[in-house]
C-alpha cells in the first residue's frame, strides 16, 4: 500500500483552547501575517478592518485576525480581570496574573524573538506610532496587541513579557481597541498585495519624512478654483518637481519635527528656503 499524497496547502494546525470556527471566518493559514488581539471586547473586531481593502485581504488570507477574550482568564466566579491600584487612587488596574494567562495563550505557535513577533500594548504613555514602526511590524510574521482598559496594566507583566508600549497620539481613549484597529490597519496595508499598487505606499505621507503633496482630480474647475496648471501640462519632470516642492512646504509649515528629520537625512539646513 502506498501513502496518499500529502497536502501542501497553507492551512495550519495549532493548539487552541477555542474551537477553530469561533476564531475566524476564514481558515487559519500557515505563513499569513497574523494579528492576535487580547481584549475585553472581542465582538468589536474586525470592525473597520473588515471593510475595504483590508477586509478583502482578510478574506483572501493575505493576513489573519485572532481575538483572545481577556475575560476568560478572569479570577473568581465573576471572572474579575482588575483590582484597585496598589498605593491607592482612583480607577482599576488590569491584574498581572490575568493578563499573563492571556499572553501565554497568544504566544502558542509564535516565535519568541520580538523582532519576528512584537508584543504591543496600546498605551497613551507609549512611544508615538509612526509609519516606520508600521513598516517594521509588517515585516514581522505577526504581532500580539494587548488592549488596555481602566487605569492601565500592572507594570510587572509589561516588564516580564517585554511588552512594547505604543501610543497613537496625545489623547485618552476609553480602551485600546480603537487604537489597535488603527495600528493594524496602518500595518496590514504595507503587506505585499494588500493594496494592489505597492508603489502608492512609497509616495504617500511619511514615506521620506515628508507629508504628501495636495491631490486633485476632475472637474478641472470647481467653484472657481482651478487645478494647478503644471498638473495638466503633461510634463512629468515639472510635475514631480512641483509635487516635491509642495510636500516640502507643507511639511515645513505643519510638521517642523518631520522637516528637521528630512533635512538631516538629506544634509540640508532646516532654516533654508524661507520662502518655500
Describe the protein's architecture and organization.
- This protein has 276 residues and is an alpha/beta fold.
- The protein folds into 2 domains: 20-188, 3-Layer(aba) Sandwich (Alpha/beta knot); 204-266, tRNA(m1g37)methyltransferase, domain 2 (Trp Operon Repressor, Chain A, Orthogonal Bundle), CATH 1.10.1270.20.
- The protein has helices spanning 52-59, 96-106, 131-138, 155-160, 177-188, 200-203, 236-254, 256-266; strands spanning 33-39, 63-69, 82-83, 93-94, 119-128, 142-147, 164-167, 221-222, 225-226.
- The strands form 3 sheets. Strands 2-1-6-5-7 form a 5-stranded parallel β-sheet, sandwiched between helices. It has a two-stranded antiparallel ribbon with strand order 3-4.
- Helix 3 (131-138) crosses helix 5 (177-188) and helix 7 crosses helix 8 (256-266).
- The longest helix has 19 residues, at 236-254.
- 27% of the residues are buried.
- Mean pLDDT is 88; it is low at 1-9 and 11-26.
Amino acid at each position: 500500500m502506498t501513502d496518499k499524497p500529502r497536502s501542501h496547502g497553507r492551512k495550519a494546525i495549532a493548539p487552541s483552547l477555542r474551537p477553530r470556527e469561533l476564531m475566524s471566518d476564514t481558515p487559519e493559514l500557515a505563513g499569513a501575517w497574523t494579528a492576535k488581539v487580547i481584549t475585553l471586547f472581542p465582538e468589536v473586531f474586525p470592525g473597520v478592518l473588515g471593510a475595504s481593502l483590508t477586509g478583502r485581504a482578510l478574506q483572501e488570507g493575505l493576513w489573519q485576525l485572532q481575538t483572545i477574550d481577556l475575560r476568560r482568564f478572569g479570577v473568581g466566579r465573576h471572572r474579575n480581570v482588575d483590582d484597585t491600584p496598589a498605593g491607592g487612587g482612583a480607577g482599576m488596574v488590569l491584574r498581572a496574573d490575568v493578563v499573563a494567562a492571556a499572553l501565554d495563550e497568544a504566544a502558542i505557535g509564535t516565535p519568541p524573538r520580538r523582532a519576528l513577533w512584537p508584543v504591543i500594548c496600546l498605551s497613551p504613555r507609549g512611544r508615538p506610532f509612526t509609519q516606520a514602526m508600521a513598516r517594521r511590524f509588517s515585516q514581522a510574521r505577526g504581532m500580539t496587541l494587548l488592549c488596555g482598559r481602566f487605569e492601565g496594566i500592572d507594570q510587572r507583566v509589561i516588564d516580564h513579557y517585554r511588552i512594547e508600549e505604543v501610543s497613537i497620539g496625545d489623547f485618552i481613549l476609553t480602551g485600546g481597541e480603537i487604537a489597535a484597529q488603527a495600528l493594524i490597519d496602518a500595518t496590514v496595508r504595507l503587506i505585499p498585495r494588500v493594496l494592489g499598487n505597492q508603489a502608492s505606499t512609497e509616495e504617500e505621507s511619511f514615506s521620506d519624512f515628508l507629508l504628501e503633496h495636495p491631490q486633485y482630480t476632475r472637474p478641472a474647475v470647481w467653484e472657481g478654483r482651478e487645478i494647478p496648471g503644471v498638473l495638466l501640462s503633461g510634463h512629468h519632470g515639472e510635475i514631480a518637481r512641483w509635487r516635491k516642492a509642495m510636500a516640502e512646504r507643507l511639511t515645513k509649515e505643519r510638521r517642523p519635527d518631520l522637516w528637521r528629520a528630512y533635512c538631516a537625512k538629506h544634509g540640508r539646513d532646516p532654516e533654508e528656503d524661507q520662502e518655500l
